[in-house]
Amino acid sequence: MKRHSAAAVPLALVALWAASSAHAQSSVTLYGIIDLGVDYANNVAPAANGAVLPGAGQKLVQMQSGVPAGSRWGLRGSEDLGDGLKTIFKLESGFNAATGAEGGGGLAFSRNAFVGLQSSTLGTVTLGKQWDASVDIVEPFSLNGQYGGWYFSHPNDMDNLDNGFSINNAVKYVSPTIAGFTFESHYSFGGKAGQFSNNSTYSAALGYDGGPFTAGVGYLRVNNPITAVAGYGSGGGYVNAIYGNALADASSQSVLAAKLMGDATNTAFKSADGLGNTNFQNYEVSGIYSFTSAFTLGVGYTYTVGHYHMTETTSKYQQVNAIAQYNLSKRTSVYAMGSVQHASGGATVAQIAGFNPSSTNQQVVTRVGITHSF
């Protein structure tokens, strides 16, 4: 007969207690990204009252924070409630690493602030300030979603595939992955008495990951976009020459996006009378190649067509983006990137996201920078 020592009993009890109390474990993680770089733009025009001064473009050299990856810090955590159920939360704030200022209009948590429940079998429900479903499902197949960020986005990030804005007052559901498929949706309350739909938003997206083949489609609707999304109208403080009056006059904005080894989006600004409707289609193809485990090159091309129904004009924008990134470690990388945009048709000036418009139909932006995550 095998004999047990008295000392083994307390150890067994400790192990049993640890196993039985595992469901009560919780964790909180502090994380962040700091991105800084120096930009050069060949043609940036001053503007007044939303109008570009023709022929007044000048060269620009500046330090800018958070381009390929938004500079941010945050807290995320979970508590294990047992039986495959967790409480989760996330608080994330953007900031300007060049000046130390808070991002997102000075909000304490300008990017995300939500709490919810996560079930291994039923999915996840969260409440608060969050990204819409297309950001999660479709953005990863745009070049700006992988590398390049803001400057590589579709003109002025009109389809929010560079997560230019998060959604306030949102209830969001994310399904578990079933046979490679994942479904997401959200609804955001407008919060106005007697006006249930005003300033409300909703989205839905379906993604598939089958190993070498991935695809997805998403839809986003924003009612009264000029007021529903904090800071949307200012465009980060830059005059928006691409939308014209479409955003200010819009009673709603809808975005249909799809990804399949590239992405295509349709963004519609619908005016209240229907006469000033404006539609933009974006078509992007891109590729990423790793020469070594540390050195990566990304190249992309975006073709944009805008239809202004009131004036019956069509604008066209072609943009080529490229980035070379070298990882010094798992947390630190250096990079050089550049964008060239050419406007034609009814578009008289080019405008790369993050800059005032050029004074001509062409604009070039280059940047060198460093990114560190913690």
Describe this structure in words.
The chain has 374 residues and is mainly beta. It has a single domain, classed as Porin (Beta Barrel). 8% of the residues lie in helices and 51% in strands. It contains 5 helices and 19 strands. Strands 1-5-6-7-8-9-10-11-12-13-14-15-16-17-18-19 form a 16-stranded antiparallel β-barrel. The chain has a two-stranded antiparallel sheet with strand order 2-3. A hairpin with a 6-residue loop joins strand 9 and strand 10. It is globular and about 65 Å long. The N and C termini lie far apart (55 Å).
List keywords for this structure.
374 residues; mainly beta; Porin; 16-stranded antiparallel beta barrel; two-stranded antiparallel sheet; disordered N terminus
Mean pLDDT: 87
Low-confidence stretches: 1-23
How much of the residues is beta strand, in percent?
Answer: over 45%
Supply the CATH superfamily name.
Answer: Porin
Provide the helix percentage: under 10%
The largest sheet is:
16 strands, antiparallel, barrel
CATH class: Mainly Beta
Q: Give the topology string: H per helix, E per strand.
A: HEEEEEEEEHHEEEEHHEEEEEEE
Rounded to the nearest angstrom, the radius of gyration is 23 Å
Work out the count of structural domains. 1
Instruction: Assign the structural class, choosing from mainly alpha, mainly beta, alpha/beta, alpha+beta, or little secondary structure.
Output: mainly beta
> What's the N-to-C terminus distance?
55 Å
Strand order of the biggest β-sheet: 1-5-6-7-8-9-10-11-12-13-14-15-16-17-18-19
Q: Would you give the CATH topology?
A: Porin
* Strand segment tally: 19
Tell the overall outline.
globular
Question: Which CATH-level-2 architecture?
Answer: Beta Barrel
